[in-house]
Write a structure and sequence with these properties.
4-stranded antiparallel beta sheet; globular; alpha/beta; EC 2.8.1.7; Aminotrans_V_PyrdxlP_BS; 7-stranded mixed beta sheet; Aspartate Aminotransferase, domain 1; 17 strands
Length: 403
C-alpha cells in the first residue's frame, strides 16, 4: 500500500494547530506521540456510551466494556508476534512492566552477588528497579558500555556474561540516540533470561517476540500513539510460572479466606485492581491504526526521514550529534558549543518546533558521552522532510544567536 503522508497527518488534529504563531513541528515523539482522531473517538465513545467496570458485572454495559477491553489483549499479542494471548499482561506502561519483573521474578530468584547485566543505553525505568535489588538484596549491576558512536554490538553484551549473570536488562532502541540493539542475536547467544525494553522500538518497526529468544518485553501506549497510562508486558509462559504477584487486590484471585489466598491464572494473576479500562481500549484503537498503516511502511518512512535528517545535521559542522551509529532510528540528540540544550529547545519552540531538552531519563548514557544535557529531535510516522528543514533552519538561527 502507498504511504499517504498528507492523509496520515490529517488524522492527527493537533498537527493543524499553531504554536507561537508558527505551524506546529512536533519532534518530541520519543517522549510521547500525538493521538489520531480514531483514538480520541474510541476514548470518547468508551466514556460517553459504554463505560462500566470490567470482569465484575453481569449487566450489559459491564459485558460490553469487558469485551472491548479484553479484545485489546489479542491486538497486543498480534502486534508483538506473541504465540499466546495470556502472555500479555496489561500495565500502565513500561515502567510498571519492568517493576513487575523486578518484584515478581527477579527479587525471589536473585541473591547477593548475583549479577544483572545492564547496558549504559538504558532509560532510568530499566535501571532504577535493578538498583532496588542492589540496595535491598546485594545484587550486582554489571554495566556494558556502547561503542564511541553509540552502537552496542550483541557480541559485546554476550562477552560480558559470567556464571553469576542471572538477568540481562536491555533496550532494543535507545530513547536518546535511536541506537538499535540486536536483541535477537543476544537471545540466541545465551540462556540467561532477558528483559527487553521495547518502549521505543515497538513504535518504529515490526516486532516478533516469539523469534527473539527473550523472556520479557515491555511496551508503553503513549509512545504508540495511544493514551497515557496504557501499556503491556509480554512474559513467556515459562517465566510467568516462576513469578509471584507484584500487586494484590481484586481480580487477581480465585478465592480469598481468612487464612489463605488462591491466585487467578495468568495474566489476571498479575493485574490487581480496577484497571485503566478506557486507556487500554484507546491503546487498542492505536494499534488498529498502526496495523492499518503497516509497521513495515512506518519503518520505511522513518528510515527515509532518518537518512535525510542525518545528512542535513552532519552538514552543520558546529553541531555535535551524540551516538550517531549506523543502525539507528530517527532520533537525534545534539549539543552546540556556547548554547545550553534548554536554550536550543526554547529558541526552537519560538519557531513552533517542539524538541526535548535535558537528560532524557538516561543520565548514565549522557555521562558516557561527556555531556550534562542535550536537545533531542525524535521523529514519528507523521513527520515530513519539510519539518527536517524547519529544524535545520531553527538550529542555524540558534547558531547565529550564540556565535
Amino acid at each position: 500500500m502507498s504511504y499517504d503522508l498528507a492523509k496520515i497527518r490529517a488524522d492527527f488534529p493537533i498537527l493543524s494547530r499553531e504554536v507561537n504563531g508558527k505551524p506546529l513541528v512536533y519532534l518530541d515523539n520519543g517522549a510521547s506521540a500525538q493521538k489520531p482522531q480514531v483514538v480520541i473517538d474510541a476514548i470518547t465513545q468508551a466514556y460517553s456510551m459504554e463505560y462500566a467496570n470490567v470482569h465484575r458485572g453481569l449487566h450489559y454495559l459491564s459485558n460490553l466494556a469487558t469485551e472491548h477491553y479484553e479484545a485489546v489483549r489479542g491486538k497486543i499479542a498480534r502486534f508483538l508476534g506473541a504465540a499466546h494471548e495470556d502472555e500479555i499482561i496489561f500495565t500502565s506502561g513500561s515502567t510498571e512492566g519492568i517493576n513487575l519483573v523486578s518484584y515478581g521474578w527477579a527479587a525471589p530468584h536473585l541473591k547477593a552477588g548475583d549479577e544483572i547485566l545492564v547496558s549504559v543505553l538504558e532509560h532510568h525505568a530499566n535501571i532504577v528497579p535493578w538498583h532496588f535489588l542492589r540496595e535491598r538484596q546485594g545484587v550486582v549491576l554489571k554495566w556494558v558500555e556502547p561503542e564511541a558512536d553509540g552502537s552496542l554490538p550483541a557480541e559485546k553484551v554476550l562477552a560480558a556474561i559470567t556464571p553469576k549473570t542471572k538477568l540481562i536488562a536491555i533496550t532494543q532502541m535507545s530513547n536518546v540516540t535511536g541506537t538499535l540493539v540486536d536483541v535477537a542475536a543476544i537471545g540466541k547467544g545465551t540462556s540467561v533470561p532477558i528483559m527487553v525494553d521495547g518502549s521505543q522500538a515497538a513504535v518504529h518497526m515490526p516486532i516478533d517476540v516469539s523469534s527473539m529468544g527473550v523472556d520479557f518485553y515491555v511496551i508503553t501506549g503513549h509512545k504508540l500513539y495511544g493514551p497515557s497510562g496504557s501499556g503491556a508486558i509480554w512474559i513467556s509462559r515459562e517465566r510467568q510460572a516462576e513469578m509471584r504477584p507484584f500487586l494484590g487486590g481484586g481480580d487477581m484471585i480465585r478465592t480469598v479466606t481468612r487464612d489463605s489466598v488462591d491466585y487467578a491464572a495468568p495474566p489476571l494473576k498479575f493485574e490487581a485492581g480496577t484497571p485503566g479500562i478506557v486507556n487500554q481500549i484507546g491503546l487498542g484503537a492505536a494499534l488498529d491504526y498502526l496495523t492499518g498503516l503497516g509497521m513495515e511502511n512506518v519503518a520505511a518512512h522513518e528510515k527515509g526521514l532518518r537518512d535525510y535528517a542525518r545528512d542535513q545535521l552532519r552538514a552543520l559542522n558546529w553541531l555535535q550529534v551524540q551516538g550517531d551509529s549506523p543502525d539507528k532510528g530517527a532520533i537525534f540528540s545534539m549539543t552546540m558549543q556556547g548554547a545550553h540544550a534548554h536554550d536550543i529547545s526554547t529558541i526552537l519552540d519560538k519557531k513552533g518546533i517542539a524538541v526535548r531538552a535535558g537528560t532524557h531519563c538516561a543520565m548514565p548514557l549522557l555521562e558516557f558521552f561527556g555531556v550534562t544535557a542535550s536537545a533531542r529531535a525524535s521523529f514519528g510516522l507523521y513527520n515530513t522532510k519539510a519539518e527536517v528543514d524547519a529544524l535545520i533552519d531553527g538550529l542555524k538561527f540558534c547558531r547565529e544567536l550564540f556565535a
